[in-house]
Specification:
The complex is a heterodimer of chains A (803) and B (225).
Chain A (H helix, E strand, L loop, with lengths): L1 H14 L1 H29 L11 E10 L2 E5 L2 E2 L2 H8 L3 E10 L3 E4 L2 E5 L2 E4 L3 H4 L4 E4 L10 E5 H8 L8 E4 L4 E9 L12 E4 L14 E9 L5 H6 L1 H17 L3 H7 L1 E8 L21 H28 L1 H13 L4 H38 L11 H27 L3 H5 L7 H37 L9 E4 L9 H10 L3 E6 L11 E7 L2 E11 L3 H5 L3 E4 L12 E5 H6 L10 E6 L2 E11 L14 E5 L5 E5 L5 H14 L7 E3 H8 L1 H35 L1 H9 L4 H35 L10 H27 L3 H6 L2
Parallel strand pairs in A: 7-12, 9-11, 18-23, 20-22
Antiparallel strand pairs in A: 1-2, 1-13, 1-14, 3-13, 4-7, 4-13, 5-6, 5-10, 8-11, 9-12, 10-11, 15-24, 15-25, 16-24, 17-18, 17-21, 19-22, 20-23, 21-22
Chain B lengths: L1 E11 L4 E12 L4 E5 L6 H8 L7 E6 L2 E2 L5 H11 E4 L11 H11 L4 H14 L15 H13 L5 E5 L7 H16 L3 E5 L3 H4 L4 E6 L2 E7 L2
Parallel strand pairs in B: 3-8, 3-9, 6-7, 7-8
Antiparallel strand pairs in B: 1-2, 1-4, 4-5, 9-10
Helix pairs in contact in B: 3-4, 3-5, 4-5, 5-6
Classes of the chains: A alpha+beta (803), B alpha/beta (225).
Protein name (chain B): ABC transporter ATP-binding protein
GO molecular function, one term (chain B): ATP binding
Family (chain B): Belongs to the ABC transporter superfamily. Macrolide exporter (TC 3.A.1.122) family.
Chain lengths: 803, 225
């Protein structure tokens, strides 16, 4: 029986090759999308789960709203770990991690450049599952100045030799560390990656007792049955107890008084949430994580792709019912019951799903490298062979069989045998109503995605072209020029004299990409106001960056010592309550030596010194050149300058390579996530419209066949080809039009939500809808038009002969 | 074998009700070969469909082997049909996607016959119909006469008690038509009851009895043998 089903199914496929190809290509594209997104999503969801205690580990984070400034930091104060372990019975272990910047390694006279280094508490390896493969397994970091290094670094420095017991040096801080163990490289799906983990026992910051400064990523291990919310509920009391007394000393205000107008506290974040659910300021995150929003978006898009392809299958199967009705009739007359026929049609859907899956795997294999690049992933082909994915694929095939084959199976098998034999069933009516509904549904998705893609593109182009308050083009940032030590000034002078250089400023503070970062408490008449950020610059900063001075003057050597003078942005003037008349006013900042008076000498126009996701915050420019340089090039081609920079740099400091970036690139990098989403959306918008149009093409083909005789008669009676095209296309175009009514409000609503991520964003204008509609209609009409044009130009005699 | 009494069938459209069968009664005995004749639209095909349990009557009684089937639902009718009735159509109604062998095999599949026995019985009947050499061909590769022989083979493979033939020679030339009529006669002589709808007086002469119909009613009945 089954072999008979499969045989008939296969021969039907061969007979209707065209329809079959439409089905298979559509299904394969849908399945390939599902496979890809399935692997992507599961890779994103796997972050940090390799830790044996993953479900019990939580990170302590800091959130505050201080005088309107929102603060979300993934780091907390040094004493937090020990305090929580002591004071909360549910906490069985607590460990800390601090990122160390600028680590130039040296061993045996060879320099190894920058390394990823962190300081961790000795119990770090009991909390996280980072297997030691060589050396001290149990207490590798129990002594000061000990380090555990990664397998890769061990191979790099020591080759095949044994690193344990060897001493490596961090040259720029002149620190020496003894290697006590080698750990496996930290898995890719970890929220942190280090090559060297040094003991905090020798780290000064680790001994700090202040609750007023945050330095440490702090992780707690909770008891098996502990409830994270209950533990979190205990944090406010602890914060008050320990921070309260220190707050009076630091800002002269009691904790209770402070909390009246402000809000500050410690919270817990489950370890497994870190990768996808973090919203902490860039300066306090270890690595740029993923975003759960995109997981949802891509999952939904994959499901849509599959559904669209399944709809094609259903529509083409029911539309071609006329071709199958005779067979159904004969089988019924010969004794087949409805159930047997349902099985038969399901068997055919199964064959299609199976072939489509094989083709999808091929498509997946071919497009995997491109996808990996796009998604920034390292998904390997053979990961698809894991039992869980194989099961998923089998499940998918069965799901498609039921989803795509189910409705046609019930529809076809319900034919009355008499009518079926005479092909007297109605092609219109309820069945074609359902078909129309499904076509509308497909185009809701396609048109919705096209609009979404246009919105993303529009926002990206807005970001590219927005007046940022500075000129981001032709700016080159050279980092860490301080490494040149005594030669720094000579180096800067040489670059300044280069004819290709239009301007140069000595500062490492840039509005995009890797930048120095400084914040401090601001006081007005001795009273704490809020925290503000500082840029340390020189007198060339404003002209080099192309910023606009609104009032007052720039820094200048003519005025002697400017260390107590500042230039503030409009937001700062507003926050300080100075408004337009800020020039000449004074406020204070918190320093180690107490409050320092700062005099406002100028106001600059607000510029986007944070990403466009965020509002512009108050900013203070201070005369204190150090760290690096920013070069404004005369021409867009900066290769000449880079060449000179390299050779000059190498003549001073051969130990470390020049580290530079192009500001425009860094700026673009800030929106990488959105750009990727734009690219992926475009890809899927194209795919969905292709698959939807494949289906449409199939349906038009059948309509043309069904109305073959009608078109012949009409032509004989004098209808023109264009009238026939209109006749055949009208109904479908109408359906596409209806789909806009559903797609656009939906897409508008969702894309507005997406735009909320940007403080600076576009309005979704009417012409975007028009454009999306034109594109969708255009493609749909092209699809329908080709087929109907062919039908319209058929010799009418042919169609009349058929009866 | 078959006894219908006051059988009625109506076709309704929104405005018009057409009477297809109007209180029709007759009987066909086991082993009989009956021909039903009449002009187009007289209700012959409707009658054959009801006799074949493809359709149900709107009134009257239909006894099949003494069982009242007038009130049967589709599932019950299908069950009775596949074991007892073979069909031969004017347009052959072979499945184009299946070979000769597979077409003939189909009724055996639906009655649950085991594969080995199926093969044996299909071969047997193909031999009998002298179409064995064509068993691997597909319907489009055969002449009309050959196609109808396959259709007859398919109708008899299950050893039905009765064969219903709806203008079995309607699409054939006279020599092929005669061949098919000879086949039917042979089957009848071997004991199978046959009811045939036909326009052809020539074909009707192969039967034992001609029932003539007009407007859904029986007008005459001539016994030929």
């Amino acid at each position: 029986m089954i072999s008979n089903y499969l045989k008939t199914g296969w021969r039907n496929i061969i007979k209707n090759r065209g329809t079959f190809m439409v089905n298979i290509i559509g299904l394969a594209l849908g399945i390939a999308s599902v496979i890809m997104i399935m692997l992507y999503v599961s890779s994103e969801l796997s972050y940090d789960r390799f830790n044996k205690k993953a479900d019990r580990i939580a990170r302590v984070v800091f959130r505050a709203n201080i005088n309107g400034e929102e603060m979300n930091e993934a780091v907390v104060m040094a004493p937090v770990a020990q305090t929580l372990e002591n004071d909360i019975p549910e906490v069985t272990d607590a460990t800390r991690l601090a990122k160390s910047h600028n680590n130039r390694l040296e061993y045996n006279g060879t320099y190894y450049g920058q390394s990823n280094m962190g300081y961790v508490d000795p119990n770090f390896f009991q909390v996280f599952t980072l297997p030691i493969i060589n050396g001290d397994q149990r207490t590798p970091l129990d002594k000061p100045n000990t380090v555990v290094i990664s397998e890769t670094l061990a191979k790099n420095i020591f080759g095949s030799g044994d690193p344990v017991g060897k001493v490596i040096r961090v040259t720029n801080r002149d620190e020496s560390y003894t290697v006590t163990a080698v750990m496996q490289d930290i898995p890719e799906n970890s929220h942190f990656h280090f090559d060297i983990l040094a003991s905090t026992l020798g780290y000064v910051n680790a001994k700090k007792t202040t609750w007023m400064q945050s330095d440490f990523f702090t992780y707690l291990v909770l008891k098996e049955d502990a409830d994270i919310a209950e533990v979190e509920a205990k944090l406010p009391a602890i914060t008050r107890k320990y921070m309260g007394p220190q707050m009076i000393d630091a800002i002269g205000m009691s904790y209770e008084e402070f909390q009246k107008d402000n809000d500050l506290g410690l919270f817990l974040q489950p370890l497994t949430d870190i990768h996808l659910h973090s919203d902490f300021s860039d300066a306090t995150t270890l690595e740029q994580g993923g975003d759960i929003k995109y997981i949802y978006i891509f999952s939904i898009v994959a499901i849509f792709m599959l559904v669209i392809a399944c709809i094609n299958f259903m529509n083409l199967a029911t539309a071609s019912a006329s071709k199958r009705s005779k067979e159904v009739g004969i089988r019924k007359v010969l004794g087949s019951n409805k159930k047997q026929l349902i099985y038969q049609f399901l068997a055919e859907a199964f064959i299609s799903a199976l072939i489509a899956t094989v083709l999808a795997i091929v498509i997946f294999a071919i497009s995997l490298p491109g996808f990996n690049q796009l998604a920034g992933k390292n998904i390997e082909f053979y990961s698809l062979l894991k039992p869980v994915y194989v099961l998923c694929l089998i499940g998918l095939i069965l799901l498609i069989t039921v989803l795509a084959g189910g409705y046609p199976a019930f529809y076809l098998s319900s034919f009355n045998p008499l009518h079926a034999l005479k092909s007297k069933f109605s092609g219109s009516g309820k069945n074609s109503g359902i078909r129309s509904g499904l076509v509308v549904f497909q185009f809701v998705i396609s048109a919705g995605l096209i609009l979404a893609t246009l919105v993303v593109k529009e926002q990206m182009s807005y970001i590219q072209n927005k007046d940022l308050g500075y000129e981001k083009d032709q700016l080159l940032v050279v980092h860490n020029t301080y490494l040149l030590e005594n030669n720094e000034d000579n180096f800067i002078q040489e670059i300044k004299n280069n004819p290709r250089v239009e301007n140069l400023t000595h500062s490492a503070y840039v509005p995009a990409g890797e930048s120095y970062n400084e914040a401090g408490g601001i006081f007005l008449k001795g009273e704490f106001l809020r925290r503000m950020y500082f840029y340390n610059v020189d007198e060339n900063y404003i002209p080099t960056m192309g910023m606009e001075l609104l009032a007052g003057r720039n820094f200048s050597k003519d005025y002697g010592n400017e260390s107590n003078n500042v230039i503030i942005n409009e937001k700062a003037a507003e926050a300080l309550g100075f408004g337009q008349s800020a020039i000449g006013k004074t406020f204070q900042r918190d320093t180690h030596e107490g409050l320092q008076d700062l005099h406002v000498i100028g106001i600059i126009k607000d510029f986007n010194w944070k990403s466009l996701h965020k509002e512009i915050d108050p900013l203070i420019l201070k005369m204190n050149p150090h760290g690096g340089i920013i070069i404004k090039s005369k021409t867009a081609d900066m290769s000449g300058i880079i060449e000179v920079l390299n050779s000059d740099w190498n003549s001073y400091n051969p130990k470390e390579a020049l580290n530079y970036s192009i500001l425009d690139d860094s700026f673009n990098h800030t929106y990488l996530k959105e750009q990727k989403m734009g690219t992926i959306l475009t890809l899927f918008a194209i795919l969905t419209i292709i698959v939807a149009c494949l289906g449409l093409f199939g349906l038009v083909t059948f309509t043309a066949q069904q109305r073959f005789k009608e078109t012949g008669i009409r032509k004989v009676l004098g209808s023109s080809a264009s009238q026939i095209v209109a006749l055949l296309s009208k109904d479908f175009i109408k359906l596409v039009g209806i789909s806009f009514l559903i797609a656009f409000p939906l897409s508008y609503y969702l894309m507005n939500k997406w735009l909320q991520d940007f403080a600076f964003r576009i309005e979704i204008k009417w012409w975007l809808f028009l454009l999306a509609a034109t594109i969708t209609l255009g493609i749909a009409f092209l699809t329908i038009g080709i087929k109907s044009f062919k039908a319209a130009n058929m010799n009418p005699v042919k169609s009349l002969k058929i009866e | 074998m078959i006894k219908i009494t006051d059988l009625e069938k109506y076709y309704k459209t929104e405005e018009v009700q057409t009477i297809a069968l109007n209180k029709l009664s007759f009987e066909v005995k086991e082993g009989e070969f009956a021909a039903i004749m009449g002009p187009s639209g007289c209700g012959k095909s409707t009658l054959l469909n009801i006799l074949g349990m493809l359709d149900d009557p709107d009134g009257g009684s239909y006894l099949f082997n003494g069982i009242e089937v007038a009130g049967y639902n589709e599932r019950q009718r299908a069950k009775l049909r596949k074991h007892n009735i073979g069909f031969v159509f004017q347009s052959f109604n072979l499945i184009d996607e299946l070979s000769v062998f597979e077409n003939v095999e189909l009724p055996l599949i639906y009655t649950g016959v085991k594969p080995a026995e199926r093969k044996e019985r299909v071969h047997e009947v193909l031999e009998k119909m002298q179409i064995m050499h064509r068993r691997k061909h597909f319907p489009q590769q055969l002449s009309g006469g050959q196609q109808q022989r396959v259709a007859v083979a398919r109708a008899v493979v299950n050893n039905p008690k009765i064969i219903l033939a709806d203008e079995p020679t309607g699409n054939l030339d006279s020599s092929n038509g005669n061949e098919v009529m000879d086949l039917l006669t042979e089957l009848n002589e071997a004991g199978t009851t046959i009811i045939m709808v036909t326009h052809s007086e020539h074909d009707a002469k192969f039967s034992h009895r001609i029932i003539r119909m007009l407007d859904g009613q029986k007008v005459t009945e001539n016994v030929l043998v």
